[in-house]
Specification:
Elements: E1 18-31, E2 34-41, E3 44-50, H1 55-63, E4 69-78, E5 93-104, H2 121-126, H3 128-131, H4 135-157, E6 161-162, E7 180-182, E8 190-192, H5 198-206, E9 211-219, E10 231-240, H6 244-262, E11 267-268, E12 274-276, H7 277-284, E13 298-299, H8 301-304, H9 310-317, E14 321-327, H10 335-347, E15 353-358, E16 373-374, H11 382-392, E17 399-405, H12 407-424, E18 432-433, E19 435-439, E20 444-447, E21 452-455, H13 470-473, E22 482-487, E23 490-497, H14 502-511, H15 516-530, E24 537-543, H16 544-551, H17 583-588
Parallel strand pairs: 3-5, 6-9, 11-18, 12-19
Antiparallel strand pairs: 1-2, 1-4, 2-3, 4-5, 7-8, 9-10, 10-24, 13-14, 14-17, 15-16, 15-17, 19-22, 20-21, 22-23, 23-24
The structure holds aspartic acid.
Length: 601
């Protein structure tokens, strides 16, 4: 070894010991005729002192620059009184150098590695090996390792076994586009990279594996959204002979214990509430509600059904609903802030948003007069406003936000506004951790754009036992044995009990409008397996990348939780992927590139 101990491990116990350490020059300071460097390795940093009375070593240290790789031999000693650094684990000691060797020089890095100051993300990705040297990124990678280790240990104790499934496989449709890999030996044929090991883990249940898990890489060729990656990692898990509660209880227990062990600095809100999908949408306007704060949505439809304010009463007459929530203490909002909220509502598809500001000068809601009320909805009577304020729990000084329209629009719009207001009021506290379980998802949703039914979770999800007959008569009403785990407004995991019989699986495919030939082609292997004694089974999968962000104090996006992520455009700026390949490689794969002229605008 080129070192006898790690930099970050040195403590008062090592006083007077001879050590050899090696690492990167984090910083060099020349001070009072001495040279000080902070030497950094993966465990932390320690201060090294060079004395001018050892001229050779001193001369070597004079050449040191940031990020040079050096080896130092020396003696540990207590730092002189008053120079200790309580912010550093090694801050009680320093190493007095007796030998120094340059192992490698470094160009001046394009950004400061020794600080966690913001740096342009493209630059960070281009020089990812330097970015990963920074403390917070190193900590994120370590946290990720500990999460995965925790999961493995936890599941091993429960007699789960980790089984690897192939990366080169046949397409397993889960709603996204597949990444395809051309086959050299079978011209014109392709493997697909798995969107998830869904069908494989179901096969493993048929195989009698009983309790399977895998830290699985998944690939989805989606139009990239802000916080998505073309490849990501999931804890993928499946169990045989289970009912929804068995899986949910285990999932919740795993995540709570993991949070307690790996994010003890966060205030964990317990017990973990359970809501049905309908409840979550109705009360929080989201199927992954952020429960770090209240801002609960109330139904106001009955109050305004007969209102003079026709924007509301007409919506009610046409079968729509009017709902709203209270933003405490936000009554003195500015005109500009109101405009911002209205534009948020528009972005999410609300026709309009009615905002009512209540003057803090009013003594109580009962004592409200029109003078205390600021709203463009002049036709709302003061009695209606009082009833609305009482329903949403507002007091003078508060702001009430109301949306009207059809249910599928109103609830998500209010859900978004709720998040927006929470952000403005600083309620989305990163130090809190609020898990919640959402159950009873609809099995199918109607896609307006493509005018067809789509499986909300995936087509292998079982409808609840009493819901099967609705599949043919009222598909949108079918409730599935599906569940999600959310935390702080993000989905962390999701799963379901699966269909395990051929005829039932075919019924769902039929409801989804799959032609029989396509069913046979895409799913024939699974349907056949179901005919050989497939046990009832279910499971879930949870994103590891997002979990790191949730537990971390510094990660801003999943890109901070992945060693070598792609940009939001799906590009790897370090290696330069995707890239053209040699024509010989294409020939081997029987691929010809056809350039199509862009149609003229
Ligand atoms: N395969 C699903 C997914 O990737 C999870 C599951 O149902 O287990 O979302």
């Amino acid at each position: 070894m080129l070192k006898s101990i790690d930099c970050g491990q040195l403590r008062a116990d090592h006083n007077e010991q001879e050590v050899t350490i090696a690492g990167w020059v984090n910083r060099r300071r020349d001070h009072g005729g001495l040279i000080f460097i902070d030497l950094r390795d993966s465990t932390g940093l320690v201060q090294v002192v060079f004395h001018p009375d050892s001229p050779d070593i001193f001369a070597t240290a004079e050449r040191f620059r940031s990020e040079w790789v050096v080896q130092v031999r020396g003696k540990v000693r207590m730092r002189p009184n008053g120079t200790e650094n309580p912010n550093l684990d090694t801050g009680a000691v320093e190493v007095v150098a007796t030998e120094a060797t340059v192992l490698n020089a470094s160009k001046t890095p394009p950004f400061d590695v020794n600080q966690d100051a913001p740096v342009d993300e493209l630059l960070r990705m281009r020089y990812r090996y330097l970015d990963l040297r920074r403390t917070h990124m190193r900590e994120n990678l370590r946290l990720r390792h500990r999460i995965v280790k925790f999961i493995r240990d936890y599941l091993d104790d429960l007699r789960f076994i980790e089984i690897e499934t192939p990366i080169l496989i046949k397409s397993t449709p889960e709603g996204a586009r597949d990444y395809l890999v051309p086959s050299r030996n079978h011209p014109g044929n392709f493997y697909a990279l798995p969107q998830s090991p869904q069908q494989l883990k179901q096969m493993l249940m048929v195989a009698g594996a009983d309790r399977y898990f895998q830290i699985a890489r998944c690939f989805r060729d989606e139009d990239l959204r802000a916080d998505r990656q073309p490849e990501f990692t999931q804890l993928d898990l499946e169990m045989a002979f289970v009912e929804p509660d068995d899986v949910i209880d285990m999932m919740v227990d795993l995540y709570i214990k993991m949070a307690q062990a790996l994010a003890p600095q966060k205030e964990l809100i317990l017990p973990v509430p359970r809501l049905t999908y309908a409840d979550a949408m109705s009360r929080f306007g989201s199927d992954k509600p952020d429960l770090r704060f209240g801002l609960e949505i109330s139904d106001l439809t009955d109050i305004v059904a007969g209102s003079e304010f026709q924007v509301f009463s007409n919506v009610v007459r046409d079968g729509g609903m009017v709902k709203g929530f209270n933003a405490p203490g936000y009554g003195d909002i500015t005109r500009r802030q109101i405009d911002e909220l209205v534009s948020v509502a528009r972005t999410y598809g609300a026709g309009g948003l009615v905002i009512i500001g209540l003057d803090a000068a009013a003594e109580s809601i009962d004592a409200l007069t029109t003078d205390h009320v600021r709203t463009p909805a002049k036709a709302l009577s003061i009695e209606e406003i009082k009833a609305i304020a009482t329903r949403v729990g507002a007091v003078p000084g508060d702001l009430i936000l109301i949306a009207a329209g059809a249910q599928p629009k109103v609830e998500p719009v209010l859900g978004q506004l709720r998040l927006n207001i929470a952000e403005r009021l600083g309620l989305n506290d990163r130090n809190k951790l609020a898990f919640c379980v959402v159950t009873d998802f609809p099995a199918l949703e109607w896609l307006e754009d493509s005018q067809r039914w789509h499986a909300m979770h995936h087509p292998f999800t079982a409808p609840q036992d009493d819901q099967w007959d609705l599949l043919e008569t009222d598909p949108g009403a079918v409730i599935a044995k599906a569940y999600d785990l959310a935390a702080n407004g993000s989905e962390l995991a999701g799963g379901s009990i699966r269909i395990h019989q051929r005829a039932q699986q075919e019924r769902v495919f039929a409801a989804l409008g799959y032609p029989q030939a396509e069913v046979d082609e895409l799913f024939g292997h699974l349907l056949e397996a179901f005919e050989y004694g497939a046990p009832p089974h279910g499971g879930f999968a949870g994103g590891i990348d997002r979990l790191v962000v949730t537990f971390s104090d510094t990660a801003e996006s999943i890109r901070d939780a992945i060693a070598f992520p792609k940009t939001q455009a799906g590009v790897d700026p370090l290696f330069g992927a995707p890239s053209p390949v040699a024509s010989a490689q294409l020939d081997d794969l029987h691929i010809a590139i056809v350039t199509v002229d862009e149609p003229e605008a």
